[in-house]
């Protein structure tokens, strides 16, 4: 079938792009919330904290991606900032899962690797990952700045008592993952914007 006569294909292409528009517009509509999250992160980094990132499945590789973006910036001249992914050490993840259960793999590492000055970023596509939620709760109990990144309606993470939740408002997990990548690139970029304007890090603004 010629492209010019493939009406059904054209409609499918339109729908493919349209379902990505609303989630990105939601991020734009919540720009102030995103900026406040980045400001809180920048202040923690400014005071010597590090970023601790975790997630399951696809978000486990997102956690590694986020960590390397901060530790080894792809843009020349940008400051390297301390970050670790709790999904990178397979021996630790599987050891804790075997000994204490999968639900504890992140909370256990937070207890032994994180400091109160740090930042915890938990990523969950549907917002309902028990081990991500437990990792965030343990982080909050220890005084870390807590940030959840979820999809859909935010799930249990969106309703949890954590400092900041960034939600990709979509039902398609592929779209959620795409929006999450955009979100954490924005986090990285805005943290560096605040570092380039040191005066923005000194006022006492609630996290």
From TrEMBL:
Q: Which InterPro entries match?
A: GmhA/DiaA, SIS_dom, SIS_dom_sf, SIS_GmhA/DiaA_subfam
Tell me which domain of life the UniProt entry assigns to the organism this sequence originates from: Bacteria
Gene Ontology biological process terms from the UniProt entry: carbohydrate derivative metabolic process
UniProt keyword annotation of Isomerase present: yes
Q: Which GO terms describe its molecular function?
A: carbohydrate derivative binding; isomerase activity
Q: Provide an example Pfam family for this protein.
A: SIS_2
Q: Which Gene3D superfamilies match?
A: Glucose-6-phosphate isomerase like protein, domain 1
Q: Which keywords, in A-to-Z order, does the entry hold? A: Isomerase
Keyword Cytoplasm tagged:
no
Q: Where is the SIS domain?
A: 41-203
Q: Which protein, by its recorded name, is this?
A: D-sedoheptulose 7-phosphate isomerase
The source organism is Halopolyspora algeriensis
């Amino acid at each position: 079938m010629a492209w010019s006569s493939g009406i059904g294909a054209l409609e499918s292409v339109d729908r493919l792009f349209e379902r990505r528009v609303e989630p990105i517009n939601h991020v734009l509509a919540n720009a102030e919330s995103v900026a406040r999250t980045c400001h809180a992160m920048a202040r923690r980094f400014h005071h010597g904290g590090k970023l601790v990132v975790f997630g399951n499945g696809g978000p486990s590789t997102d956690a590694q991606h986020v960590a390397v973006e901060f530790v080894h910036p792809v843009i020349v001249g940008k400051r390297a900032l301390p970050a670790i992914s709790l999904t990178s050490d397979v021996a630790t993840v599987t050891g804790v899962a075997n000994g204490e259960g999968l639900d504890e793999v992140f909370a256990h590492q937070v207890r032994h690797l994180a400091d109160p000055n740090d930042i915890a970023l938990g990523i969950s596509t549907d917002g309902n990952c028990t081990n991500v939620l437990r990792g965030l709760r343990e982080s909050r109990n220890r005084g870390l700045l807590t940030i959840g990144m979820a999809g859909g309606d935010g799930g249990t993470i969106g309703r949890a008592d954590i400092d900041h939740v960034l939600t990709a408002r979509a039902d398609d997990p592929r779209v959620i993952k795409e929006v999450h990548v955009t979100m954490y690139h924005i986090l990285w970029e805005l943290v560096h914007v605040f570092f380039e304007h040191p005066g923005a890090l000194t006022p006492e603004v609630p996290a």
